[in-house]
């Protein structure tokens, strides 16, 4: 089940919000998002450049969205306005993603061979990917200033490709490879463990729990994630990678 009821923007959440408690919760969520962007080196808050000193095509507009969850908690996300992105700021943005048929094949193999499954949710996936372009965003603490953007912030047209390429390089570095016919479905050289990756959602499969533990351990050295499900009594959460 999706754990949110609606999304709103900064003006409604903070600027014009007269509910003191709600306003406080939104500000806290916003600060948490800023802290995470700094932690993941998306931008350096100490660098402030006057907007007039940067070409306008290099400045990517940003927005802040807030999700109000069913449990009443708030989550903020700062995103780029990809719909306003200059065409000169990107070229090849096509990327191959996991085919649902490949995922179904993995689940069939798991069912027929009694494989053990584990599902993972990588936190802030795109922010692990660096960008090559010379981009700036409005400084979150000073709208008169801009600051260099270093990571594939959500909303940039090239962010999905940057993340997929980053994940693929890491998977290859630990001996996991996909194929032209099954992008996003990575298999170990000995064939003992597999992992299907769709954006930030992953599902691992293997005959031996130790093989899965080893893969998960390697992932933990590179990414922060949550283990959100395991195979229990031959059943897995039906929302796996968006399947219902």
UniProtKB/TrEMBL annotation:
Which segments constitute the Reverse transcriptase Ty1/copia-type domain? 69-231
Question: Pfam families in the record, alphabetically?
Answer: RVT_2
The protein's name in its UniProt record: Reverse transcriptase Ty1/copia-type domain-containing protein
Native species = Huiozyma naganishii (strain ATCC MYA-139 / BCRC 22969 / CBS 8797 / KCTC 17520 / NBRC 10181 / NCYC 3082 / Yp74L-3)
- Organismal lineage: Eukaryota, Fungi, Dikarya, Ascomycota, Saccharomycotina
Q: Which gene encodes it?
A: KNAG0M01680
């Amino acid at each position: 089940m999706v754990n949110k009821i609606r999304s709103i923007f900064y003006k409604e959440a903070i600027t014009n919000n007269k509910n003191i408690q709600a306003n406080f919760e939104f500000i806290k969520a916003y600060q948490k998002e800023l802290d995470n962007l700094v932690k993941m080196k998306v931008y350096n808050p100490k660098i402030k450049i006057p907007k007039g000193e940067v070409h306008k095509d290099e400045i990517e507009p940003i927005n802040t969205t807030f999700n109000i969850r069913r449990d009443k908690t708030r989550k903020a996300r700062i995103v780029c306005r990809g719909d306003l992105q200059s065409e000169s700021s990107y070229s090849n943005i096509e990327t191959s993603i996991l085919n649902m048929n490949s995922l179904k094949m993995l689940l069939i193999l798991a069912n027929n061979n009694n494989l053990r499954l584990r599902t993972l949710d990588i936190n802030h996936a795109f922010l692990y990917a660096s960008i090559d372009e010379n981009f700036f965003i409005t400084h979150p603490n000073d709208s008169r200033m801009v600051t260099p953007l270093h990571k594939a912030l959500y909303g940039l047209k090239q962010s999905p490709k940057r993340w997929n390429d980053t994940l693929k390089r890491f998977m290859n570095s630990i001996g996991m490879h996909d194929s032209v016919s099954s992008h996003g479905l990575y298999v170990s050289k000995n064939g003992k463990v597999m992992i299907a990756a769709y954006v930030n959602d992953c599902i691992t499969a293997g005959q031996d729990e130790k093989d899965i533990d080893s893969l998960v351990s390697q992932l933990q050295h590179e990414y922060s994630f949550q283990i959100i499900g395991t195979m229990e009594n031959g059943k897995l959460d039906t929302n796996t990678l968006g399947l219902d």
